[in-house]
Structure to design on (423 residues):
């Protein structure tokens, strides 16, 4: 792009963001089921769901009742407690790779400590991640997450200022869905590679057949810990998350968002021989990986989590996401096409994106760079005006509370939004 074209683009973007601000600046007064209302009385069908955690919808009556029973008994103890033990048991039942669970406060902490765990268990220091993969806000995750252009693999640039320069070369990146490239980087760095971390559904990109399998095999051969970041996919795209859906089992996986019923909590789950490094009862001090936190194992969040997992384990739950989300994805694509847009709804039924691009199939970050984010922003503004709460260029999160009537209303709004941006 020429400097002049780049300046024009920036001005256009600033103008769009200013307009978006008018509609996106919602102050939520309350959420109920699949809806939120704002302090000025506007009602929205919510497809952001707190960025994923409200998988059961807002204020689910069983979660509210369980939390109300727990709160008078105290909200934090630091020590082990019954709700957190029950949650750990429930998670070990559900998660294929899990022998043991370690709780943290946020997803960022979970991936940060999972990487430290891998370094402690292997005695190595480097981590390989995939370009465009999101693993939270710490200094080892913010490399090659949203680059403007493809990286010089396996070298990556930090996404934020303030990331220590000494970490350059410690975090490697590869393009998602390119098995040969990933295997080659893993082999080349095998002696130093502590971990490979991957979002098995990378934002809205499904893994192509064979990709996760190849990464699994290469990590095993290299003696590196394979970490699945299931903070979005865990308990959302299947009861056993991406491991169940795609049939590949990592060594360790991180959880957050939906696992604790909309309350703040996250976790690391994994194989006993690796997880033991967190456990002072099973590991001598020099081999111990430190990962404690004041609010870890919070009993209120754990109570919400146990209740959420009870609800999610009931028959028909995942069929609901396929039915509702599948219909939305199909019809958004066909409406857009009818208005002459190259539009796709990649992802899984319970969490997907809408991307304006003719590039098919969408396999990696470079492919996503072809999508028209400004058009998406304009479309999203039209949806917001019509009472549909979405985060532009991000994801549609579905909940158990979304109904067929919500989908009808959403598709009507999508139709009008396509018509509006066509004009
Ligand atoms: C895949 C993934 N990993 C990690 C995180 C970080 O989680 P948190 O925002 O709880 O720190 C996120 C947050 O969106 C995520 O989507």
């Amino acid at each position: 792009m020429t400097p002049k074209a780049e300046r024009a683009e920036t001005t256009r973007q600033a103008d769009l963001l200013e307009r978006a601000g008018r509609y996106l600046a919602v102050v939520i007064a309350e959420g109920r089921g699949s809806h939120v209302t704002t302090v000025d009385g506007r009602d929205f069908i919510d497809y952001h769901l707190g960025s994923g955690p409200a998988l059961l919808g807002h204020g689910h009556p069983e979660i509210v009742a369980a939390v109300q029973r727990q709160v008078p008994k105290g909200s934090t103890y630091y020590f082990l407690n019954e709700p957190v033990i029950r949650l750990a048991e429930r998670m070990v039942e559900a998660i294929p790779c899990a022998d043991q669970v370690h709780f943290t406060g946020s997803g960022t902490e979970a991936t940060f400590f999972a990487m430290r765990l891998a370094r402690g268990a292997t005695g190595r220091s480097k981590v390989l991640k995939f370009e465009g993969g999101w693993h939270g806000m710490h200094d080892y995750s913010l490399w090659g997450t949203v680059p403007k252009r493809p990286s010089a693999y396996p070298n990556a640039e930090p996404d934020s200022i303030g990331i220590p320069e000494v970490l350059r070369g410690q975090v490697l990146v590869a393009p998602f869905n390119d098995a040969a490239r990933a295997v080659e980087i893993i082999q080349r760095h095998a002696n130093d590679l502590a971990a490979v971390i991957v979002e098995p559904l990378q934002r809205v990109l499904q893994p192509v057949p064979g990709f996760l399998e190849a990464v699994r095999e290469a990590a095993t051969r290299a003696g590196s810990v394979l970490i699945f970041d299931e903070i979005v996919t865990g308990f959302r795209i299947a009861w056993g998350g991406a491991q169940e859906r795609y049939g590949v089992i990592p060594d360790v996986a991180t959880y957050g968002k939906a696992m604790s019923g909309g309350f703040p909590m996250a976790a690391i789950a994994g194989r006993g021989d690796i997880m033991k490094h967190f456990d002072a009862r099973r590991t001598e001090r020099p081999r111990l990986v430190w990962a404690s936190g004041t609010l870890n194992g919070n009993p209120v969040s754990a109570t919400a989590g146990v209740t959420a997992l009870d609800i999610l384990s009931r028959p028909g739950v995942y069929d609901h996401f396929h039915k509702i989300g599948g219909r939305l994805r199909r019809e958004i694509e066909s409406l857009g096409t009818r208005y002459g847009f190259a539009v796709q709804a990649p992802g899984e039924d319970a969490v997907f994106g809408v991307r304006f691009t003719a590039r098919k199939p969408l396999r990696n970050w470079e492919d996503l760079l072809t999508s028209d984010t400004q058009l998406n922003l304009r479309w999203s503004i039209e949806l917001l005006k019509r009472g549909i709460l979405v985060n532009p260029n991000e994801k549609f999160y579905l909940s158990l509370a979304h109904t067929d009537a919500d989908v009808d209303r959403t598709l009507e709004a999508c139709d009008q939004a396509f018509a509006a941006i066509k004009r």
